[in-house]
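Researcher: I'd like a structural prediction for the single chain below. Treat it as a standalone chain; there are no partners to consider.
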Amino acid sequence: MKFLFDFFKRSKTPLLWIQSRTNPKQFVIISSILVGLTGGLAAVILKQAVHLVGKTIGFLSIENLWLVAFTPMLGIALCVIFIKYFNRNKLGKGLSNILYAIARKSSILPRDQTYSHIITSALTVGLGGSAGVESPIVTTGSAIGSNFGKAYKLNYKERTLLLACGAAAGIAGAFNTPIAGVLFTLEVLLVEANISAFIPILIAAASGALCSEVILGDDVLLNFKLKEPFNYVNVPFYFLLGIVTGIGSVYYTRVFQFSENLFSVFKHKLVIRTLLAGAGLYVLIILFPPLMGEGYSTIKLLSNLQTKEVFENSLFKSLIDQKFWLYSLLIFVLIFKPMAAGFTLGGGGNGGNFAPSLFMGAILGFLFSSLVNETRITELPVSNFALVAMAGILSGVFHAPLTGIFLIAEITGGYELIIPLMIVSAMSYAVSKAFMPQSMDMQKLQEKEKIVTTSTDDYLLSSFKLDSLIEQDFSPVSINASLGALVKVVSASKRNIFPVLDNNLNLKGLITIDDIREVMFKQEMYEKISVRELMRQTGQVITENDDIRTALKLFDESHLWNIPVVFEQQYMGFISKSTILEKYRETLLKSSIE
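Model: Treating it as a single chain, here is the predicted structure.
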C-alpha cells in the first residue's frame, strides 16, 4: 500500500487545487471516493495475497499434512521478524488500536499502517494462521483515511470521518458488502453519526465494494446461494439458535482471550513465544485440519452440505462416514477454534476474529440443525441455519448485530433470510451483552487504557488523564496540629477546604471553613482544640484505579465540587468538577477547529 500512498502524495497538488475551490463538505465527499477506492483496493490486494499464498502451499493431504502443518509457525515467525526489524515494534493490532487513535490521538494513525498490516496478515493467515484478515483490512483502510486527512490538514471531525470511510471500504471490499461495511463502521467505530457523516461513508463503502466486484472472483469472495426459502414454522428454532449462538459468542471470547494471554509472560522472549504458540497450533492442525487458515473453504462446504469433504485430508478420514464421528469431529473443531485463533495472535501473528467468528457460526448452525433433524421432531434447512448462525456469532462477539444481519443478507444475494437473521442476531447480542457488557475490543481498550468510547462526550472525556487534572494548591495541615496552627494555615490560603495528613502524608480527613467558623476566632481555644478533633471523615476519594467516568460518577453521587485524590494511600491533591468542565469545554472547542 505504500505505493498507493506515494501516488496520492504525488497527486497532492491537483487535490490541493480542488480543495481550494470547494467547501469543506464537498472536499470530504471527493476525499471519501478516493479513500474508498484505495481502501477497497487494499482489501482486494490482501485477499488475493492470502489466496495465492494458500494455493502455493497446496491443499492439505494425509501425505504432506505433517509438513504443511508447520507453515503457520513459519508465518507467525516471519510476522514477528517483520514487526521487530522492519516495523520497530510499532504495529498496533486489533480494532482497539483504531478506537484508541480516535479517543487519544486525534484520529491519527501511523503512516506505516497503510501497508504493514497487509504484509504481516498476509504472512500470518496466508501461511495457515487460524485467524482472519478483516481486522488488518479495517486498520489499513482506517490508516489510509487518517493519513489522507492529515495530509490535507483536515480537522479532527473530518479526519475521523475519513478514517471511518477507509474502514467501511475495507469491509465492503473484503466481502463485496457495502451495506455491511457502513453498518460495521457505525456500530463499532463511530457511535454517533449524523446524515452529513453518513453520506461520505456510504460513498466510500460503495467505492470499496466496486473494487471487489471488478477484481475478485467467486473463489476468493465469500458468497452463497440459498437452497431453501424461509419457513415461518421454524421461527421457534431460530429463537433457540439465537440463545445458543449468544452462549457460543461468550465461549469464543473467553477462550480466545485466555489462549492469547497465555503467551503474555513471553512478551520479550519472541523465540520462545513463537515456538510455543506454533507448536500448539501445529498439534491442533494435525488433529483437526479445518482449523488451518481463515476457514472460508470449510464454511462453503458446510453451507453446500458437502460435510465429508471438510475432513477429507484428516487423520480421521475413515470415520467420517459415520454421523456420530462426523458430528464429534465438528464439535471438537468448534471447541478448539478460539484456542487456535488465540495461539495465532498470542504467538505474534497478525489477524482478527471476524473470520473465526463466521467459521464458528457456520459449524454451530450446522450442528444445531443437524442434531435437531436427527431427533425427527422436524426437518430444518441445515444450510440456512449454518448461514444464520454465522450472523449470530458475529453479532455476539463484536456486539454488532446490524453488521451480522446485513453481511449475511448481502453475501446470500438477497433478504430471504432477513427475519431469521434479525431474530438470531438480536438474541445472540442480548445474551452476549448480559455476560459481556463490552465487546472484546472495548474490553481490551478499557483494561489497558481506561478509555470508554460510547458517545461523542466519552470520546472527548477519554482523552483526559486524571493526573493532569489534579490541583495541588490546597494547603495541608498535620493531624497533630492545634487550632492555632490551623488558623495560620487558613489565613494564608485561598481555599476553603484543607486536607488533614499524618506524618507519612496519608490522608486522614478534611476540614472546611464551616467546620471551624464558630471557634476560629476564640484565641483561648487555640491550644486546647486539636485538628484531630475538628476534622471530618474523608468520604469519597479518587484513587489510581479510577478513570474520568468514575470521577464524574463520584461527583454526581456526593454533590461535591472538590474530591481528594489518593495514590497508594498518599495524598496527591484535589480534582474539582469545575476543572473537568472547563477542560471539556476547551477540548470540545479545539476538536471543532483542529
